[in-house]
Design goal:
Layout: H1 44-58, E1 63-64, H2 75-78, H3 80-84, E2 92-96, H4 121-134, H5 145-149, E3 152-156, E4 161-162, H6 178-190, E5 197-201, H7 203-206, E6 218-222, H8 243-251
Parallel strand pairs: 2-3, 2-5, 5-6
Antiparallel strand pairs: 1-4
Length: 261
Protein backbone atom coordinates (compact mmCIF):
# COMPACT_ATOMS: atom_id res chain seq x y z
CA UNK A 1 0.00 0.00 0.00
CA UNK A 2 2.98 2.33 -0.25
CA UNK A 3 1.44 4.01 -3.23
CA UNK A 4 -0.61 7.12 -3.81
CA UNK A 5 -3.88 6.91 -1.95
CA UNK A 6 -6.45 9.66 -2.09
CA UNK A 7 -4.34 11.44 -4.72
CA UNK A 8 -1.27 12.01 -2.56
CA UNK A 9 1.63 10.00 -1.13
CA UNK A 10 0.52 7.61 1.60
CA UNK A 11 2.25 9.39 4.49
CA UNK A 12 2.10 13.18 4.38
CA UNK A 13 2.92 15.00 7.58
CA UNK A 14 0.38 17.37 8.98
CA UNK A 15 1.00 21.02 8.10
CA UNK A 16 1.15 21.61 11.87
CA UNK A 17 4.37 19.55 11.98
CA UNK A 18 6.13 22.07 9.75
CA UNK A 19 5.30 24.83 12.23
CA UNK A 20 7.02 23.12 15.13
CA UNK A 21 4.02 21.13 16.28
CA UNK A 22 5.52 18.27 18.30
CA UNK A 23 4.00 15.00 19.38
CA UNK A 24 0.76 13.54 18.16
CA UNK A 25 -2.67 15.05 18.51
CA UNK A 26 -4.53 11.85 19.35
CA UNK A 27 -6.99 13.58 21.64
CA UNK A 28 -6.27 11.39 24.68
CA UNK A 29 -3.99 13.77 26.51
CA UNK A 30 -1.80 11.93 29.03
CA UNK A 31 -4.01 8.85 28.99
CA UNK A 32 -1.79 5.71 28.88
CA UNK A 33 -2.08 4.81 25.22
CA UNK A 34 0.32 2.26 23.72
CA UNK A 35 -0.41 3.04 20.07
CA UNK A 36 1.06 6.55 20.07
CA UNK A 37 3.88 5.40 17.77
CA UNK A 38 1.52 5.14 14.78
CA UNK A 39 2.44 7.76 12.20
CA UNK A 40 -1.20 8.28 11.28
CA UNK A 41 -1.65 10.62 14.26
CA UNK A 42 0.84 13.05 12.70
CA UNK A 43 -0.77 13.21 9.27
CA UNK A 44 -3.17 15.67 7.78
CA UNK A 45 -5.49 12.68 7.23
CA UNK A 46 -6.07 12.44 11.00
CA UNK A 47 -6.61 16.18 11.22
CA UNK A 48 -9.23 15.89 8.48
CA UNK A 49 -10.97 12.99 10.26
CA UNK A 50 -11.15 15.02 13.48
CA UNK A 51 -12.49 18.09 11.68
CA UNK A 52 -15.13 15.94 10.00
CA UNK A 53 -16.23 14.29 13.26
CA UNK A 54 -16.44 17.61 15.09
CA UNK A 55 -18.56 19.08 12.31
CA UNK A 56 -20.89 16.07 12.46
CA UNK A 57 -21.28 16.35 16.22
CA UNK A 58 -21.66 20.14 16.17
CA UNK A 59 -24.53 19.87 13.66
CA UNK A 60 -26.41 17.47 15.92
CA UNK A 61 -25.59 14.20 14.17
CA UNK A 62 -25.65 11.01 16.21
CA UNK A 63 -22.66 8.84 15.43
CA UNK A 64 -21.75 5.24 16.11
CA UNK A 65 -20.05 4.09 18.25
CA UNK A 66 -22.30 5.95 20.62
CA UNK A 67 -20.92 8.28 23.27
CA UNK A 68 -22.10 11.51 24.84
CA UNK A 69 -20.75 14.56 23.02
CA UNK A 70 -19.84 17.48 25.29
CA UNK A 71 -17.95 19.63 22.79
CA UNK A 72 -15.00 17.25 22.67
CA UNK A 73 -14.77 14.25 20.36
CA UNK A 74 -15.21 11.06 22.48
CA UNK A 75 -11.84 9.63 21.51
CA UNK A 76 -11.84 6.85 24.12
CA UNK A 77 -15.00 5.40 22.59
CA UNK A 78 -14.13 5.87 18.93
CA UNK A 79 -10.60 4.51 19.42
CA UNK A 80 -11.71 1.91 21.95
CA UNK A 81 -10.03 -1.10 20.27
CA UNK A 82 -6.68 0.61 20.78
CA UNK A 83 -7.58 1.80 24.28
CA UNK A 84 -8.75 -1.60 25.52
CA UNK A 85 -6.04 -3.73 23.87
CA UNK A 86 -2.42 -2.66 24.28
CA UNK A 87 -0.10 -3.03 21.31
CA UNK A 88 2.20 -5.53 23.03
CA UNK A 89 -0.75 -7.69 24.13
CA UNK A 90 -2.32 -8.31 20.70
CA UNK A 91 -2.47 -12.02 19.88
CA UNK A 92 -5.53 -12.27 17.64
CA UNK A 93 -7.14 -9.71 15.33
CA UNK A 94 -10.81 -9.93 14.34
CA UNK A 95 -11.55 -7.48 11.54
CA UNK A 96 -15.04 -6.10 11.00
CA UNK A 97 -16.45 -3.60 8.54
CA UNK A 98 -17.83 -0.63 10.47
CA UNK A 99 -19.81 -0.09 13.71
CA UNK A 100 -23.36 -1.27 14.18
CA UNK A 101 -25.53 1.57 12.83
CA UNK A 102 -27.77 1.32 15.92
CA UNK A 103 -26.45 3.65 18.67
CA UNK A 104 -27.91 1.28 21.28
CA UNK A 105 -25.59 -1.45 20.03
CA UNK A 106 -22.29 0.13 18.92
CA UNK A 107 -19.86 0.31 21.86
CA UNK A 108 -16.62 0.88 19.93
CA UNK A 109 -15.39 -2.72 19.62
CA UNK A 110 -16.08 -4.67 16.44
CA UNK A 111 -19.11 -6.98 16.84
CA UNK A 112 -19.48 -6.02 20.52
CA UNK A 113 -22.53 -4.37 22.11
CA UNK A 114 -23.47 -2.65 25.32
CA UNK A 115 -24.38 -5.25 27.95
CA UNK A 116 -27.99 -4.17 28.45
CA UNK A 117 -29.33 -4.56 24.88
CA UNK A 118 -30.65 -7.38 22.73
CA UNK A 119 -27.82 -9.24 21.01
CA UNK A 120 -27.86 -8.43 17.26
CA UNK A 121 -28.15 -11.18 14.66
CA UNK A 122 -24.50 -11.29 13.57
CA UNK A 123 -23.30 -11.65 17.14
CA UNK A 124 -25.90 -14.35 17.80
CA UNK A 125 -24.30 -16.41 15.02
CA UNK A 126 -20.84 -15.77 16.46
CA UNK A 127 -22.04 -16.89 19.89
CA UNK A 128 -23.71 -20.01 18.48
CA UNK A 129 -20.36 -20.99 16.93
CA UNK A 130 -18.57 -20.02 20.15
CA UNK A 131 -20.83 -22.41 22.05
CA UNK A 132 -20.40 -25.25 19.53
CA UNK A 133 -16.67 -24.83 19.08
CA UNK A 134 -15.56 -24.19 22.65
CA UNK A 135 -18.28 -25.88 24.70
CA UNK A 136 -18.69 -22.77 26.84
CA UNK A 137 -22.17 -21.56 27.89
CA UNK A 138 -23.88 -19.06 25.60
CA UNK A 139 -22.81 -15.55 26.81
CA UNK A 140 -25.30 -13.54 28.83
CA UNK A 141 -24.63 -10.26 26.97
CA UNK A 142 -23.02 -9.00 23.78
CA UNK A 143 -20.21 -7.24 25.64
CA UNK A 144 -16.89 -8.49 24.20
CA UNK A 145 -14.62 -6.36 26.38
CA UNK A 146 -13.23 -9.53 28.01
CA UNK A 147 -11.84 -10.54 24.62
CA UNK A 148 -10.21 -7.14 24.20
CA UNK A 149 -8.60 -7.48 27.64
CA UNK A 150 -7.20 -10.86 26.64
CA UNK A 151 -5.32 -9.54 23.60
CA UNK A 152 -8.03 -9.99 20.97
CA UNK A 153 -8.09 -6.80 18.90
CA UNK A 154 -11.68 -6.14 17.78
CA UNK A 155 -11.10 -3.83 14.87
CA UNK A 156 -13.41 -2.27 12.28
CA UNK A 157 -11.80 -1.13 9.04
CA UNK A 158 -13.98 2.01 9.23
CA UNK A 159 -14.20 3.36 12.75
CA UNK A 160 -17.41 5.42 12.72
CA UNK A 161 -20.72 5.75 10.89
CA UNK A 162 -23.83 7.90 11.14
CA UNK A 163 -26.67 6.42 13.17
CA UNK A 164 -28.92 4.35 10.93
CA UNK A 165 -26.51 4.51 7.99
CA UNK A 166 -24.06 1.64 7.53
CA UNK A 167 -20.91 2.48 5.56
CA UNK A 168 -21.72 6.20 5.70
CA UNK A 169 -18.14 7.04 6.73
CA UNK A 170 -16.44 4.68 4.31
CA UNK A 171 -15.58 7.88 2.47
CA UNK A 172 -14.92 11.13 4.33
CA UNK A 173 -14.84 14.15 2.05
CA UNK A 174 -14.60 11.68 -0.81
CA UNK A 175 -11.53 9.94 0.64
CA UNK A 176 -10.90 6.66 2.47
CA UNK A 177 -9.40 8.22 5.57
CA UNK A 178 -10.30 5.82 8.37
CA UNK A 179 -8.92 2.94 6.32
CA UNK A 180 -5.47 4.56 6.41
CA UNK A 181 -5.40 4.07 10.19
CA UNK A 182 -6.46 0.44 9.77
CA UNK A 183 -3.78 -0.10 7.13
CA UNK A 184 -1.04 1.17 9.41
CA UNK A 185 -2.26 -0.94 12.33
CA UNK A 186 -2.21 -4.06 10.15
CA UNK A 187 1.25 -3.21 8.79
CA UNK A 188 2.70 -2.38 12.21
CA UNK A 189 1.38 -5.56 13.80
CA UNK A 190 2.70 -7.55 10.85
CA UNK A 191 6.25 -6.35 11.60
CA UNK A 192 6.22 -7.82 15.08
CA UNK A 193 8.48 -10.84 15.59
CA UNK A 194 5.80 -12.97 17.23
CA UNK A 195 3.11 -14.88 15.36
CA UNK A 196 -0.44 -13.51 15.24
CA UNK A 197 -3.79 -14.87 14.10
CA UNK A 198 -6.14 -12.86 11.90
CA UNK A 199 -9.81 -13.84 11.69
CA UNK A 200 -11.48 -12.43 8.59
CA UNK A 201 -15.23 -12.97 8.31
CA UNK A 202 -16.89 -12.02 5.04
CA UNK A 203 -15.66 -10.80 1.67
CA UNK A 204 -15.00 -7.23 2.80
CA UNK A 205 -12.75 -8.35 5.64
CA UNK A 206 -10.98 -10.80 3.35
CA UNK A 207 -10.04 -7.95 1.00
CA UNK A 208 -7.39 -7.08 3.61
CA UNK A 209 -5.78 -10.50 3.35
CA UNK A 210 -3.23 -9.33 0.75
CA UNK A 211 -1.53 -7.24 3.46
CA UNK A 212 -0.79 -10.22 5.68
CA UNK A 213 2.36 -12.33 5.64
CA UNK A 214 0.89 -15.81 5.76
CA UNK A 215 4.31 -17.42 6.03
CA UNK A 216 4.59 -15.77 9.44
CA UNK A 217 0.99 -15.36 10.64
CA UNK A 218 -2.13 -17.52 10.52
CA UNK A 219 -5.18 -16.25 8.61
CA UNK A 220 -8.56 -17.85 9.33
CA UNK A 221 -11.45 -16.98 7.02
CA UNK A 222 -15.17 -17.65 6.86
CA UNK A 223 -18.42 -16.11 5.61
CA UNK A 224 -19.79 -13.08 7.39
CA UNK A 225 -21.74 -14.19 10.49
CA UNK A 226 -25.28 -13.43 9.44
CA UNK A 227 -28.59 -15.19 8.72
CA UNK A 228 -27.73 -14.94 5.01
CA UNK A 229 -24.81 -17.29 5.56
CA UNK A 230 -26.47 -19.71 7.97
CA UNK A 231 -26.87 -22.15 5.09
CA UNK A 232 -23.87 -21.07 3.07
CA UNK A 233 -24.84 -18.09 0.92
CA UNK A 234 -21.13 -17.33 0.33
CA UNK A 235 -20.33 -20.90 -0.66
CA UNK A 236 -20.23 -22.46 2.77
CA UNK A 237 -21.91 -21.88 6.07
CA UNK A 238 -20.46 -19.85 8.94
CA UNK A 239 -21.41 -22.77 11.18
CA UNK A 240 -18.72 -25.25 12.25
CA UNK A 241 -15.81 -23.07 11.16
CA UNK A 242 -14.09 -23.75 14.52
CA UNK A 243 -12.55 -20.28 14.35
CA UNK A 244 -11.86 -20.06 18.07
CA UNK A 245 -10.11 -23.39 18.61
CA UNK A 246 -8.14 -23.01 15.37
CA UNK A 247 -6.82 -19.65 16.56
CA UNK A 248 -5.71 -21.13 19.88
CA UNK A 249 -4.10 -24.15 18.21
CA UNK A 250 -2.10 -21.86 15.92
CA UNK A 251 -0.69 -19.92 18.87
CA UNK A 252 -0.57 -22.67 21.49
CA UNK A 253 -3.04 -20.82 23.70
CA UNK A 254 -5.61 -22.10 26.18
CA UNK A 255 -9.16 -21.65 24.90
CA UNK A 256 -10.06 -19.86 28.12
CA UNK A 257 -8.93 -16.61 26.49
CA UNK A 258 -12.30 -16.69 24.67
CA UNK A 259 -14.44 -17.28 27.74
CA UNK A 260 -17.16 -14.67 28.27
CA UNK A 261 -19.38 -14.20 31.33
Amino acid sequence: MYQKINNRPFWVKSPWAKKGWKGTNIGLGKYPFTWRHLRFWSTEDWVEVQDFLKQEYDTGKILCPNAKYTGTIPYKTILRPLVDTEFKDVKIVILGQDPYPNPKHADGLAFSTFPNVKIPGSLQYIFAEYERDLGFPYPRTGDLSAWASNGILLLNSVWTCAAGKSNSHEYINGKTLWQLLTIEIMQTLGKRKDKLVYILWGKKAQQWRYMLDEKKHTVITGPHPSPWNAIGREGHAFKDGKYFTRACEALGLDTKIWRLP
